[in-house]
Amino acid sequence: MLIISEKLNSSIPFVLEAFQKRDNETIIELIKKQELSGATYIDINTAVLQDGEQDAMLYAIDLVKKHSNMGIMIDTPNVNVVHQAVEAAEGRSIIINSVTVSERIDELMDLLKSRSDIMVVGLPISNEGIPHTAEERVRYAGEIIEKFAQNGIGEDRIFIDVLVEALAVGDKNAALCLETLRLLKETYPNVKTTGGFSNISFGLPKRMVLNTAFLAMAMYQGLDSAIMDPAPDSMRKAYRAINALLGNDEYCMDYIDEIRGTEE
């Protein structure tokens, strides 16, 4: 499973301040910590800076490229920023986050057709908002997948966001997300899945307890990637334990190395 770091996001106050001040030390430390903790991609979102979004995006991409080997997830609603960011991220694996069947998909289609190395996240939502059933979510996902297929973009380049919503505002939200994931894997086995998995615990105490339990349930259902913070000690250990229990860690060596490294 791919781990996509969620921490280089301007909605986080200390990250926003670091972007505004061009605080290289803080951002470089964050980048290195996320990669060391197991992140293979890093989501970059600078939208809170509004008019300064593009400059901050290019600044962040430059630091990621200089100080890590991670792939880059370009997270912006601004199509112009996407184009500039793709050019700046040249040489790294790129994921664009995100499109719906009615927003940005047509504006980005030419770019995606011209660059077979770029992947994209699709949000299975309608103009009315987030669907309330797994079947509806999979139907909207199917519309996105079909539109891409009509333009020669294969399922292997598509991530579908399973739309993780806070458990605090809906006690069925975790179950709905897991059912969406199950149906997606059953209906479109070649399409990858992702989501902001720390959303599940927003507004609740001891968030890491919920985050790690939910991640285990999702990985059992075949989750392909998670947008999350892998740095907390309990999350790193849980992730290695889940992989071992699912049979994805030969002789449990990664789990053993994680435990030994923590003890040392």
What does the model show?
The chain is built from 10 helices and 8 strands. With 264 residues, it is of the alpha/beta class. The longest helix is centred in the middle third of the chain and has 17 residues, at 134-150. Helix 2 packs across helix 3 (53-67). It has 2 domains: 1-69, no CATH class; 93-231, Dihydropteroate synthase-like (TIM Barrel).
Low-pLDDT parts are none
- Please identify, by name, the CATH architecture of the largest domain: Alpha-Beta Barrel
CATH fold-level topology of the largest domain = TIM Barrel
**Multimeric status of the protein:** single chain
Q: State the distance separating the first and last CA atoms.
A: 26 Å
| Secondary-structure class | alpha/beta
What is the 3D form?
globular
**Total individual domains:** 2
Count of individual beta strands: 8
* CATH class value of the largest domain: Alpha Beta
Strand content: 15-25%
Let me know the largest β-sheet.
Answer: 8 strands, parallel
Question: How much helix is in the residues?
Answer: 40-55%
